[in-house]
Amino acid sequence: MFTFIHAADIHLDSPLRNLSQYEGAPVDALRGATRRAMENLVELAVSRKVDFVLISGDLYDGDWKDYNTGLYFVSQMSRLREADIQVCIITGNHDAASRMTRTIRVPDNVFVFPSSSAGTFKFDKIGAAVHGQSFSGPAVKKNLALAYPDIIEGYYNIGMLHTCATGREGHAPYAPCRVEELVLKGYDYWALGHVHQKEVLYENPFIVFPGNIQGRHIKETGAKGCMIVEADIMGGNTVVEFNALDVLRWEKAGVDISDIGDSYQVVENLCMELESLLEENQGVPLAVRVELYGRSAAHENFAARPMHWINQIRSAALDTGGGQIWIEKVNLGTGLPGKNTALPGGPVGEIMSYIDEFKSDKEMLACLGESLNPLIRKLPREMKEFSGIFQNKDPEWIAGVLDSIYPVLLDRLTGKGDIE
């Protein structure tokens, strides 16, 4: 029986996005998040006394700005060497040899697989053989797995591969392969990298994406970490356990404002949702995207003073979370309740009918969105950066805006005054 850690996509010193834009945001936490997650990985390896650690590509986020990134990595690998823990690495598209202009000597407990062809690193004492190949460039389009070595009889065989597999949304189609091809290699475990969401593609043998160890933006929600794998060569059993390593977690919180006429009550309902999220994530600091949706009279307040309510939400989040919750963005996708089932006649009816036709014509929506560019350029920077309101290149967003102002415009044109 032996134990190893399978991690990938560390993206060391990669910046976290969209959280340093307002007072109270965790600037220091953002700057060091990937390093602290890396430290958690090392501490886990030492505390669990694992036999070795596998890093399946994208250790770095691209070329270093200076040598500090490399020196930091060396310091962490030295900690593992002191604990007699070997590390095997394949490079991925972000840290391929051709992308890195700086290099630095690594401790002798670190083995980096070559990029010219697939190779094997053997742990003779425990009977494990690790096969892998690094990326030679930032865009490898061929199926690397097909040329991986045959199994070594009597050993537990592990394949390290940086791949999109059969394709994953949001990830470039690098080193594509099919699950069936990996199974046919006869390996006991496939340690994949490149996809940032943890996923078990197959269980006999295990073919696993561990995900990245620290989420960096709102598209990387949920717990992030690594896999701890216990392997029994004699019995042929493999047990895989996910272990979270992230120090700040990205989540989404949605609130349906339907039937809530008071804007402050909407914020109170959001606070309850945020409390639940913090509890579900066991106190890990959260970066949350808030999405308000539905139709109620409260929409008029949000539409009239968006920055006021966005900052009310930020303030409520800081207070509710005791400084452990920050708002990444607020999307105001609300609308007023429809009050008229039939359009009035005359000029008002013609105008409203024209808006209905406009919403169904993508070319007209695109033209309208383009016409907003001069106005948006004149807006204060904070209005353009915060809240995600301005997506004028998206026809669906333009149609949503027209839909949301429809009831307000109708009331103004018919002279009915304020919405109740």
UniProtKB/TrEMBL annotation:
<dbReference type="InterPro" id="IPR050535">
    <property type="entry name" value="DNA_Repair-Maintenance_Comp"/>
</dbReference>
<dbReference type="InterPro" id="IPR029052">
    <property type="entry name" value="Metallo-depent_PP-like"/>
</dbReference>
<keyword id="KW-0378">Hydrolase</keyword>
<dbReference type="InterPro" id="IPR004843">
    <property type="entry name" value="Calcineurin-like_PHP"/>
</dbReference>
<dbReference type="Pfam" id="PF00149">
    <property type="entry name" value="Metallophos"/>
</dbReference>
<dbReference type="InterPro" id="IPR014576">
    <property type="entry name" value="Pesterase_YhaO"/>
</dbReference>
<feature type="domain" description="Calcineurin-like phosphoesterase">
    <location>
        <begin position="3"/>
        <end position="197"/>
    </location>
</feature>
<protein>
    <submittedName>
        <fullName>Metallophosphoesterase family protein</fullName>
    </submittedName>
</protein>
<dbReference type="InterPro" id="IPR041796">
    <property type="entry name" value="Mre11_N"/>
</dbReference>
<dbReference type="GO" id="GO:0016787">
    <property type="term" value="F:hydrolase activity"/>
</dbReference>
